[in-house]
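Worked example 4.2. Below are the chains of a multi-component assembly; read each line carefully before continuing.
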Amino acid sequence: MDDFFRQTLLYDFYGELLTSHQKEIYEQFVLEDLSLSEIAASAGISRQGVHDLVKRCSHTLQGYEDKLHLVEKFLAIREKVKEIDRELDRQETRENREMIEGIRRISRDILEEL
Amino acid sequence: MDDFFRQTLLYDFYGELLTSHQKEIYEQFVLEDLSLSEIAASAGISRQGVHDLVKRCSHTLQGYEDKLHLVEKFLAIREKVKEIDRELDRQETRENREMIEGIRRISRDILEEL
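Applying the procedure described above to all two chains together yields the following structure tokens:
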């Protein structure tokens, strides 16, 4: 899993546990890909301050994951749901199309929850 | 959802974010169903102390859920997976049994992750 995807997932799961100030800075850096200098200028703190804050946030988010493992769990479920989808693709025939479609709809709903 | 089930789920999801002391007392009260007096005697704190600690833990766990909604999310997914299972039961015939069984296995794996 690449670093950006991982950071984004961690933020999706645990971001609400950061303070609103932390969230604001972290989002600018990770999600909006602004530079440390840009963020520093707009937040009125030093470049080093932004750097430290982002690092602390990453550490906090990873700390929650180390304890709760929810990203890991969700990724495993997502993989299984995709497996169901692939199995449905493989098994689909003219005769069972309607039944397959019914199950596929539910499995897509699950992916949307994830 | 009954209160015991709800407390258990909250503890399953967020219990690791409590301190080990909190976990010990909370488990005795909620999961092992010991009385406040029994826990107080074995932990060497007052009955009121146990009561307050359990109340604070419930509040903390619910606070995490209010922010992250992970119990809610997981319950929704579990419902969908059960829906897939019911749909498979409905659609199973002598001819498609093997295919249905393949999908059912994956959906059971998902339930185990939850």
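Take a moment to check your reading of the output against the notes. The two ends of chain A are 17 Å apart (CA to CA). Residues 5 and 46 of chain A are 27 Å apart (CA to CA).
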